Amino acid sequence: MFFPMSGTDQQAPAQPVEKTILHVDMDAFFAAVEVRDCPELKGKPVVIGSPRDQRGVVSTCSYEARKFGIHSGMPSRTAAQRCPNAIFLPVRMARYQEVSEQIMEVFQRFTPYVQPLSCDEAFLDVTGSIHLFGDGPEIARKVKAAILEETGLTCSVGVAPNLFLAKIASDMNKPDGLTLVPFSEKLIPAFLAPLPIKRMWGAGGKTRAILEAHNLHTIGDLQTADPAKLAAWIGENAATAFRRRAFGIDDRAVETESEEKSISNEITFGEDETDPEVIEAHLLDLADKVGGRLRRAGFYAATTQIKVRWKDFTTITRQRRIDPPCCDDITLRETALSLLRKEGLHSPVRLIGFGVSGLRETADAPQMDLFQTSEKQTSTKREALSRAVDAIRARFGKTSIRRGSSMK
Ligand code: TTP
Ligand code: MG
To answer: Are both 267 and 292 inside the same structural domain?
Structure first.
C-alpha cells in the first residue's frame, strides 16, 4: 500500500497509509476543447465567454491568454483591453458535456470509485486498483495518457493520501502536471507550509482578511499559530477546521454516484453572503439541480435537507420528510425555501447546500391505499411537469427554459 514518493521521503520513517487518491482536473477545459476542435487556434490567446464588446464575463481562457492577466470571471471587456488580439468564442456547453462524459468514462476504467466535482474534474480512489495498474503515480500517468489519446486534451493530476491533498496537488503544476504529495505523515506539513492560505478549502475573503491582519499568510503560518489565539480571531469551529487542513488531515471518502443513498449539491460563496434574495435564489437553483439528478437516477426522495454554514464556520442541517416521496422541482423548491425561512438568516452565510435522501424507486409508500390521495395527484402532475422541463432542456440546452419567479 505504501510507496515512497520522493527522495527525501525515503529517509523518513514510513507511515502506513490507507488510501491513494487522485484528483484529475482538465487544463483550460472549455478553451482546450475549442482548440482541439479547431487546430488553427493552437498557440493563440483564446477566450471563452461573452463577446469582447458586451457585458458579461470570461468563462475560461487558454494558457496563452492567461499570460495577459486574463482569468475566469473577469469582464470580457477588460479581457479585450488586456489582449486586443485575443480570439473570443461563445460557450458551447453541449460540446463540453460530451467531452466530459468521455473523460468520466476513462476514469471508470481505473476504478469504480469516481466522484465528479464538476464537468472537468473528479476524485478517484485508486487504492484497490494498485495491484492491477501500478502505484498511484503510475495510474496517474496512465489516466493522463488515455485522456490525451482519446480526447486530444491534457489534464493535471494530484496523487495523495486524501482528497484535500490531492486537490491541492493537482493545481500545483498546471498545465499537463503530475504532482505527488509525500505519503509520509511527517512530511505533509512541510509540503503544505509554503503554500498561501487561499489555496485551502474554505479560506474565503473575510476569514483570509482576518488571518492576514494577524500576519498569517501561508499554511505554515497557520500550523505554527497559537490555537487559542486562532480560535479567538476566527471562532472555535473555523480554527479547528483550518488547523486540521493545515496539517493535511482529511477523513472524507470518495463518494460515488452508484452507491449514493442521498443526492446533494452545495455552493460556497466567494464572500460571506447576507442578501436573503441571493441566498434563496442559489438554494432554489441547487434544488433544481438535485431534482434533475434525482429524476435522471430514477429515484423519489422521502427526505429533504438544507445545509447552512455560517460565517463562523458552524454548520447546521435541517430536514423534512416528504409524503408521498417526490422527485419534482416544485416540491423540492417549496420544502427547501420553507426550511431556510423557518431557520432564518441570522448571520452571514458562507455555504448553502440542498440534498435529498431516503431514495426509492417508486413514489408509493408500501401502505398506500388504492385510491390516489390529493397529495399524490398533485405530486404526479408536478413530476410530469418537471420531466417535461428536463426533456426540453435535454433537447435545447440547460438554459432553454427557466422557471418564472412566480414558481419560486
Ligand atoms: P476550471 O477547472 O476552474 O478551469 P479550467 O479548466 O478552464 O483551467 P485550469 O487549467 O486552471 O483548470 O473550470 C473548468 C471549466 O469550468 C472552465 O473551462 C470553464 C468553466 N468555468 C466557468 O464557466 N466559470 C468560472 O468562473 C470557472 C472557474 C470555470
Ligand atoms: Mg480545469
So the answer is: yes
